[in-house]
Design a protein that fits this description.
The protein has 257 residues and is of the alpha/beta class. Helices cover 37% and strands 15% of the residues. The longest helix is centred in the last third of the chain and has 19 residues. The protein is globular and about 40 Å long. The N terminus is likely disordered.
């Protein structure tokens, strides 16, 4: 091939058609291929998982059913790969109180519902003892996919705490739930939920059992932090830890009036 023809081919721009794949710049050890929309621009869903954000998957319109349906297809971070399914929040859109935990556990991942495992059953009992009807609460998690580890294949799946990056990626779903439910009070269950809502400096031991007033996702909110019910199940003094949880929830009940 002549040098003139070779130079002409090098100068020719690559063609890009509808839905065609093109290479991203090689900024890591591996080269990723992303979908393009007509005209060669990145497809709205392209590269979302690498970007660690659920934002492109969250519908701007519709109520909780629309959010739940859309969340089933969320690929905003890699956690969806190993999880059985998305575990979205549950409860009435008219709920006065929203309880926010960390992430689904093993049973929640299998059943597709939040707080249906041992920690959820303990939480229902604690809410009832504190004077809050569990049926009147909306329950959800800061992260919607189960993150776990296991020593060997087919062994029991062991909970693994989500990273701040993963929690932040799931933030748009939590913001959308707060927008649709508009609760009078948020009960923050544990450190991960607290950091998702209040920032990385949150320490549950410093503020548990108090009523906080903060701006969350652009809305003024009242919050009562407490421990996650799973921490009660792990405690050496389980009865004492349970009484502490109920005491915090009683403060939440009084704040609701």
């Amino acid at each position: 091939m002549s040098s003139r023809l070779l130079a002409r081919r090098r100068d020719r721009p690559p063609t890009q058609g509808r839905g065609e794949l093109r290479d991203q710049p090689q900024t890591t050890r591996t080269r990723h291929r992303i979908r393009t929309a007509p005209g060669g621009y990145p497809h709205p869903m392209a590269g979302t998982e690498d970007a660690y954000t659920a934002e492109p998957f969250v519908p701007r319109r519709g109520g909780l059913p629309a959010l739940r349906e859309a969340a089933a297809d969320c690929r905003g971070c890699p956690l969806h790969r190993a999880a059985t399914q998305t575990v979205f929040g549950a409860g009435k859109a008219s709920a006065r109180v929203m309880l926010v935990g960390e992430q689904p556990g093993d049973q929640e991942d299998r059943q597709g519902k939040p707080f249906v495992g041992p920690a959820g059953k303990l939480l229902d009992r604690a809410l009832t003892d504190a004077g809050i009807d569990p049926a009147d609460a909306y329950v959800t998690n800061a992260v919607k996919h189960f993150k776990f580890t296991r020593a060997e294949p087919r062994k029991r799946r062991i909970h693994k705490a989500p990273t701040l990056r993963e929690t932040t990626a799931c933030g748009p779903w939590l913001a959308a739930e707060l927008d649709r439910v508009a609760p009078e009070l948020i009960v923050v269950l544990g450190a991960t939920a607290g950091k998702a809502l209040l920032g990385s400096s949150f320490r549950v031991t410093q503020v548990r059992g108090t009523v906080l007033e903060e701006e969350i996702h652009g809305r003024p909110e009242r919050l009562v932090p407490t421990v996650h019910p799973s921490a009660v199940l792990r405690a050496d003094d389980r009865e004492g830890a349970y009484r502490g949880l109920v005491s915090d929830l009683e403060i939440a009940a009084r704040a609701l009036g």
